[in-house]
Write a structure and sequence with these properties.
Shape: globular
Number of domains: 1
Largest sheet: none
Number of helices: 12
CATH superfamily: MFS general substrate transporter like domains
Distance between the termini: 43 Å
Helix content: over 70%
Strand content: under 5%
Length: 299
């Protein structure tokens, strides 16, 4: 439908539907992964996110090749719709386990979660992380071109480096989650993200910037799946509702924080905008350090 939108308001409505249905799919799949693998949810959520990272690299590159070869941008969306249709048919042919009570979205589960201060802090961390990730890579290309004089090709390479490092980081952290508590890994990644986010906005040497971007991708890599796993592990009886709320919180962060970064870029400079997510990662770090004072066990 998006290529057929005849005006901007209609396009916005379609984008809302795309985001809503996408969030529903991601939440349902995440809950299913957790219920099938309750003891290794962090590992398998990381593994699932590796494939997301691969798609994030292949998708834009494929679209760029198609447009560069003379295809219209509308064709890219029609092709993507065809791929989704095949995936839908594939899912319909898979025999999935029966829906557990924890998979279902319930009002009772929702009220229980929103009355848990600890879970609300997990939601805040998801808002901060998702917004910082989207803002970070969303503004990255503009920052590299305007401030560091990267060519369009080099900027594309930098984005590919970021997502490649994210995929590698998710594989590594997935293995680490089998040996170490999710909370400890989250704290470590938040520390790395805080440091390299600051460095990425201050460095001027192109090689050093690419290295910082790679470390940024690694630092960001497993925060989403591990924060989600941590939240679901705190309320396994409501895993479906947990993921629905957390993905909704991520969407809020993805809408607000890039906007804040844009305001900073316009009123101060783009370096300030690129550095600003460091504050949010620092808050995530402090939050999970404090969780250690009130919780015990693997998570």
């Amino acid at each position: 439908l998006f290529p057929l939108a005849s005006n901007f308001p209609l396009a916005l409505i379609i984008i809302i539907l795309i985001g809503g249905f996408g969030g529903t799919i991601e939440g349902t799949i995440s809950a299913l992964i957790t219920d099938i693998n309750p003891e290794r949810s962090g590992f398998y959520l990381n593994l699932a996110q590796v494939f997301f990272g691969i798609g994030a690299i292949v998708g834009p590159i494929s679209a760029g090749i198609m447009v560069g070869s003379g295809f219209s941008w509308q064709i890219c969306y029609y092709f993507l719709a065809g791929v989704f249709l095949l995936i839908t048919i594939g899912f319909c042919s898979i025999k999935l386990p029966a829906l557990k009570k924890s998979d279902k979205l319930t009002w009772q589960g929702f009220t229980q979660l929103v009355n848990d201060p600890k879970f609300l802090m997990v939601c805040l961390c998801m808002v901060l992380y998702t917004g910082s990730e989207i803002g970070g890579w969303g503004w990255m290309s503009t920052f590299l071109k305007q401030n560091l004089k990267f060519t369009a090709t080099k900027s594309s390479i930098a984005v590919a480096v970021f997502w490649s490092a994210m995929s590698a980081g998710r594989l590594i952290c997935g293995r680490l989650s089998l040996r170490y508590p999710d909370r400890n890994i989250i704290i470590g990644l938040a520390i790395i993200s805080t440091i390299v986010t600051i460095l990425s906005g201050l460095l001027v040497n192109q090689i050093a910037v690419l290295l910082a971007i790679a470390m940024m991708g690694f630092g960001y890599s497993s925060l989403w799946p591990l924060i989600a796993s941590y939240g679901a592990g705190s309320h396994p009886e409501n895993s479906g509702t947990v993921y629905a709320i957390l993905i909704g919180c991520g969407s809020i962060g993805g809408a607000i924080i890039p906007l804040i970064m844009g305001i900073l870029a316009q009123n101060i400079n783009i370096r300030a905008a690129m550095i600003s997510p460091a504050l949010f990662f620092f808050i995530i770090m402090i939050t999970f350090i404090n969780f250690g004072r009130i919780t015990t066990g693997k998570r």
